[in-house]
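Incident log, structure service

09:12 report received: a user says their structure output differs between two submissions of the same chain.
09:20 pulled the input from the user's history:
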Amino acid sequence: MKDKHKLLWGLAAGAVLTSLCFECLLHSLPRRAQPNLLQNADFEENLRHWGWYVHRSHGARAEFTTEQVRSESRALKISVTKPALYDSIEFGQGPITVTAGHKYRLSFLARATGRQPIRVQAIQNAPPWTFYGFRVSTEITPKWKTYHLTGRAGLSGSDAKLVFYCGGAAGDIYIDDVQFQDCGS
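09:34 re-ran on a clean worker, output below:
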């Protein structure tokens, strides 16, 4: 077979299938989308289901609002008015469930007025804030872009929270369409 990705059909005895590339068959089936573990991921309900914290002891200052940004869509706007450590400002959502060894996919649409480092991780939703193992980082740039990040959870828990950490530079950060999906093991 010259091209393993072709289906070969034989026309003997009334159109009987004589050869089939199994890999092609699997890739042709529709993939079931994994559910988003987050609520109000598009911020159309303003900040409902989202929480935030500013470590004022680090000297950070920030405001959290939603704003009409693209066509008729709202987005989270974080205004970092006084930068400090890159993780001095946090926002997130919980409780969610994470499973040890599972791969998770995080995607979100974002832009910033300048380059803004951001880290996202899964932690316990209450003290002692146990780290559940999912941790990813990127830098938000001035142009709207969809960021796709993946990582694995190291611990299981139904009391997890997905937290975004930022605050290392002054300026505005816009985030929208946040998706956090369990891709299995």
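09:41 both user submissions now match this output. Likely a transient worker issue. Closing.
09:42 reviewer note: The chain is about 5% helix and 50% strand. The chain has two domains: 1-31, 51-182.
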